[in-house]
């Protein structure tokens, strides 16, 4: 087996693991008693700066009263989103821990499609080498179809949300660094914007899920456009790009060309 084939097998295995991990996460969410209700009892902001006065740590330490399965207990939870005392939150169990529920979950269908793509990428070089070009092309066509399904599903899932545009402002930049300066390597640096916005009468500050490795990409005082999902009571930083649908159509057209070449 060539180096390229081994590389494809490893990529396929990695994608397969991602898919199965999401399937397990989805099934875990479906277990009775896994979703809990919570009420914020207290909030303690935690912030740390380095010698150069760069923000290197920012989160909120919440004491939450959790209820579910006929039990009520208090849990300390860290959050990058600001909350106030008395706010009601949705929680989920992650192993032995209780964490804030995130609506950014993958559906079972999408997780299954990712798993199948991983399997297909892993077996493609083996099938191509052992069975020939025609059988390998069939695997490739299936992969293209599944890739189109994943892109389309991602776009449609986002577009079905009822989002309201809200204004935000970058108030600070969090500096995150991994590693140190060495002879043959440099540290990996990331910059995360800290954003403040207003939802109704409440002001919220949160650490963005997006980052840049380039200093100066984000600047304090910059205005930004956000979206609010009223149904899930969550802030959405970016809408799904129409490029996802363009990719889906491109994958399906390539799959069609592949089908014609194989069976035409």
Q: Report Rg.
A: 23 Å
The shape, in one word, is: globular
Give the terminus-to-terminus CA distance.
Answer: 30 Å
Question: What fraction, in percent, of the residue positions are helical?
Answer: 25-40%
How many strands? Answer: 10
Query: What would the average pLDDT be, to the nearest integer?
Result: 86
**In percent terms, what proportion of residues is strand?**
35-45%
Instruction: Provide the succession of SSEs.
Output: HEEEEEHHEEEEEH
Classify the oligomer. single chain
Sheet with most strands: strand arrangement: 3-2-1-4-5
Structural class: alpha+beta
Query: How many domains comprise the coordinates?
Result: 3
Strand count, sense and closure of the main sheet? 5 strands, antiparallel
Unreliable residue runs = none
Layout of helices and strands:
Elements: H1 3-30, E1 35-49, E2 55-68, E3 71-79, E4 88-94, E5 97-100, H2 108-131, H3 133-159, E6 163-178, E7 188-199, E8 202-207, E9 223-229, E10 234-236, H4 243-263
Antiparallel strand pairs: 1-2, 1-4, 2-3, 4-5, 6-7, 6-9, 7-8, 9-10
């Amino acid at each position: 087996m060539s180096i390229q084939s081994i590389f494809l097998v490893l990529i396929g295995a990695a994608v397969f693991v991602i898919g199965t991990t999401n399937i397990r996460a989805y099934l875990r969410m479906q277990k009775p008693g896994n979703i809990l209700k919570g009420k914020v009892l207290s909030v303690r902001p935690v912030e740390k700066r380095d010698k150069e006065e760069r923000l290197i740590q920012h989160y909120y330490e919440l004491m939450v009263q959790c209820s579910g399965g006929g039990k009520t207990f208090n849990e300390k939870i860290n959050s990058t989103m600001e909350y106030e005392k008395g706010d009601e939150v949705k929680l989920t169990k992650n192993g032995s821990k209780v964490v804030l529920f995130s609506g950014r979950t993958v559906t079972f269908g999408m997780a299954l499609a990712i798993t199948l793509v991983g399997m297909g990428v892993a077996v493609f070089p083996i099938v191509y080498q052992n069975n020939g070009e025609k059988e390998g092309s069939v695997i490739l066509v299936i992969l293209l179809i599944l890739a189109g399904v994943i892109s389309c599903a991602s776009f449609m899932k986002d577009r079905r949300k009822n989002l309201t545009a809200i204004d935000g402002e970058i108030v600070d930049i969090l500096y995150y660094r991994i590693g140190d300066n060495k002879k043959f390597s440099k540290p990996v640096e990331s910059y995360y914007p800290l954003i403040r916005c207003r939802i109704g009468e409440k002001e919220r500050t949160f650490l963005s899920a997006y980052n840049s490795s380039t200093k100066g990409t984000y600047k304090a005082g910059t205005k930004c456009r956000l979206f609010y999902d009223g149904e899930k009571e969550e802030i959405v930083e970016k809408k799904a790009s129409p490029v996802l649908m363009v990719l889906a159509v491109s994958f399906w057209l390539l799959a069609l060309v592949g089908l014609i070449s194989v069976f035409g």
